[in-house]
Amino acid sequence: MNMNHSILETIGQTPLVRLNRVVGDVAATVAVKLEYFNPGGSLKDRAVLSMVEAAEQAGKLRPGGTIIEATSGNTGYAVAMVAAAKGYRAVIVCSDKVAAEKIDTLRAFGAEIVRVPGDATREDPEHYFNTAHRLAEAEENSLYISQSYNPDNPAGHFRTTGPEIWQQTGGKVTSFITSAGTGGTISGTGRYLKEQNPAVEIVLADPVGSVYAGFLETGEVAPSQPYLVEAAGQDELYIPPNFAADTVDRALRVTDEEAFVMARRLAREEGIFCGMSSGLIVHAAVQLAREKSAGDLIVAIVCDSGDKYLSRLYSDRWLRERLPGLVGADR
Ligand code: PMP
């Protein structure tokens, strides 16, 4: 019999797929790892499962317990899904600006939602990080995921994403490229690949305006400027502890426009329906491929699917209002 014992066993082992059209005429190969094949719809399933199982093994989370996280994105879906499958209560703290469909999805998994003012600063006790921390302190047998600080986030990628890429490429991967939110993916996967072969190049795709690229180049955390791509880069003046700068060789900066055009092209030209950060990462991967030669194999992450972005990235009207001229150019 070939049957999984729970939905959680279907996390990971995502497909690696070569890109054929959007890369243009280059000698190198670009392949994408399709993380939307995970049951919660993104790469965050791996990190959350790793953080929850580490807490269980350490005796910090026991049956009947509660998992708490401050998030509005994929981590929330992953927490809600893992908690449902394991029988825990999930509490997701998010800002009152988060879209109704996201809240409905979290509730569908049975998660409880605590909404806090979207304009609260980090110092404000109502800020979503502070609220999540307070809730976790007040509740016995609870785990505050704290994905930017929790070392079991990159550890999950070190144990799964890295080895899968190494095996799927038969050890032939020469560059690995992704963006960083918490830094868990690039740090954990990058460290694993470098341990197999120190010559594997680890490249960060960063939105123009994020603090990471400048930090890698100068060691300084300079003020960021606003950008539209969601879930990639860092727009606050801080580098999360899970971003291991020493595993990253270089950064490539990508504009909103470049990211959005590539995401839309991936759907139309490759049949790969992805989110904003994936457009950003693949744009950078294609730039990188132009510098490389035959025999080079670039692996890029496709973080999540496009369905969460229908009213933004895939809405001509939304795009036209924010980036005039883009939609016409894209057709
Ligand atoms: N979710 C999505 C949709 C993302 O694009 C990214 C960035 N690649 C992340 C999450 C963040 O990954 P990490 O926190 O591991 O850096």
Report on this model:
This protein is of the alpha/beta class and 331 residues long. Helices cover 38% and strands 15% of the residues. The protein has a 6-stranded mixed β-sheet, sandwiched between helices. A 4-stranded parallel β-sheet has the order 5-4-3-6, with helices on both faces. Strand 8 (201-207), helix 8 (212-218) and strand 9 form a beta-alpha-beta unit. 48% of the residues are buried. The model has no long low-confidence stretch (mean pLDDT 95). It binds 4'-deoxy-4'-aminopyridoxal-5'-phosphate. 4'-deoxy-4'-aminopyridoxal-5'-phosphate binds next to helix 7.
Keywords, separated by commas or semicolons:
binds 4'-deoxy-4'-aminopyridoxal-5'-phosphate, 12 helices, 38% helix, 331 residues, alpha/beta, single chain
Strands, helices and their partners?
Elements lengths: L15 E3 L10 E6 L9 H14 L8 E5 L3 H13 L2 E7 L4 H9 L3 E5 L11 H11 L3 E3 L7 H8 L1 H8 L6 E4 L5 H13 L4 E7 L4 H7 L31 E5 L1 H15 L5 H16 L5 E6 L13 H7 L3 H5 L1
Parallel strand pairs: 2-10, 3-4, 3-6, 4-5, 7-8, 7-10, 8-9
Antiparallel strand pairs: 1-2
Helix pairs in contact: 1-2, 1-5, 5-7, 6-7, 9-10
Instruction: Please count the helical segments.
Output: 12
Percent of sequence in beta strands = 15-25%
Strand order of the largest sheet: 1-2-10-7-8-9
Total strand segments: 10
What share of the residues lie within helices? 25-40%
Calculate the mean pLDDT score and round it: 95
Instruction: Note the gap between the termini.
Output: 48 Å
Cofactors and ligands present?
Answer: 4'-deoxy-4'-aminopyridoxal-5'-phosphate
**Contiguous uncertain segments of 5+ residues:** none
Class from helix and strand fractions:
alpha/beta
Radius of gyration of CA atoms, rounded to a whole number: 19 Å
- Which shape, going by the Cα principal axes? globular
**Biggest sheet: strands, sense, closure?**
6 strands, mixed
What is the helix/strand order? EEHEHEHEHEHHEHEHEHHEHH
